Amino acid sequence: MKKITLLFFLFIGFQTFSQKLFIETGKTASSFEYKDSNGISLENLQPSTNNYLGIGIKKQLFIKNLELIFSFTYNSYGAKGSDTALGNYFEWNTDYIGLNIGLDYSVFNIDKLTFYLKVGSSMEFMVQGNQIINSQVYNIQGVEEFDNSVIFFKGGAGILYPITENSSFYVQYLYGKSLALNNDINLSNAALKIKSNMVGLGILVAL
After folding, report:
1. Of the candidates 157, 155, 69, which has an alpha carbon nearest to the alpha carbon of residue 113?
2. What is the mean pLDDT of residues 84-88?
3. Helix/strand/coil for 87
4. Residue 202 in contact with residue 170, Cβ under 8 Å?
5. Over 105-172, what HEC string results?
């Protein structure tokens, strides 16, 4: 909770000097990449589709087409799979609050449409999560593979269209992949990573 409070005040402080405010929502198709301590991957893991919500601010940097982004997101990730040898079914559902920082670069314009590229990273903290094994549901908060903060690297592109003089509508796609959730080498060599494909719609307002 102290981390989230600190991030909130950083957000408010940055907003004082911002130029644009945005809010966005969309779908996240996520999948898990898991290798055990012997380096063997867990097969038959399928992606799961969930919702995400974000709010943030943009500020122009040194050149006209480059903007700094600072935002908060609420992301849901999951995956499902089965063990054909033993006949087991697995499913994971997790929710994370994230602090994001990145860059937007407007590449070119066609009439009123602006095409841009986006890169960034985020640090995300689990707020709730569960695992289903066959018909049993388990709380995974506190489980070492999941309960650490997660660092993502993301990149993608979008299209922006002006609605009024001070507001615009945009649609974007982002691909992301996390570092290993459990990065304590003293515990084990097992590694769990999350991959995400995010498609979202947003509104951007000049302040």
Report:
1. 157
2. 73
3. coil
4. yes
5. EEEEEECCEEEEEEEEEEEEEEEEEEEEECCEEEECCCCCCCCCCEEEEEEEEEEEEECCCCEEEEEE
* Residues whose CB falls within 8 Å of the CB of residue 107, separated by 6 or more in sequence, listed in order: 65, 115, 116, 117
Residue-wise pLDDT tens digits, 114-160: 999 999 999 999 999 888 888 888 888 877 667 678 899 999 999 99
110 Cβ partners below 8 Å, 6+ apart? none
Name the class of domain 2-206: mainly beta
SS3 category, 15? helix
Question: Residue 176 to residues 45, 99, 125, 198: CA-CA distances in angstroms?
Answer: 18, 14, 16, 8
Residue 50 token pair: 């969930």
| Cβ pair 24, 201 in contact under 8 A | yes
Q: Where are the domains of the chain?
A: 2-206
Q: Which residue has the higher pLDDT, 173 or 188?
A: 173
Instruction: Round to whole Å and give the CA distance between 22 and 206.
Output: 9
